[in-house]
Write a structure and sequence with these properties.
globular, 4-stranded antiparallel sheet, Porin
Length: 177
Amino acid sequence: MKKITSLLFATILIPTFAMAGALGGYFSHIDTEDGGESDGFGGKLVLNYSESASLDIRAALFDDFENIDDLELIPVEIGLTFFLGKLDQFRPYLGLGAGYYLLDSELAEIDDEIGWYGTFGLQLPVADTLSLFVEGQYRQIEGTYEGSDFDLDNFNNDRADLDLEGLSLNAGILFVW
């Protein structure tokens, strides 16, 4: 049984890495409805399906929000990206995807949430194996914050609706193969 499971896993894993087109990291600045602003870092793996479409798998970490003490947000997202041709040397793109948002706080109980995102950006190849990118990303994330040690406008009986929707600006580097 172990041999069959290993063979099945290898059959799925090897084509996935063969389709991989890029791996990179980025700096991110997010501005959310309730949490305010925060800076973070992230990484993404790009799986190419064609010259104009790819699957992006990304994750980031934000842990210093200006309006909510001790809130940590880790977006883990997967989505489709569509390249819109070329604009001089730039490659503009649009993307849409879903995310699982890991939320944590020492001050209150908060559950992880599911949400969605949309991106728009520009990629600039600077060498055969290196590209720079800048993108805007809108995330829709809502949750419930439970506890007594927090102060939000929508506070009600030790519970508060938590609205983390907002725009992120990401800038980073991709190693392309």
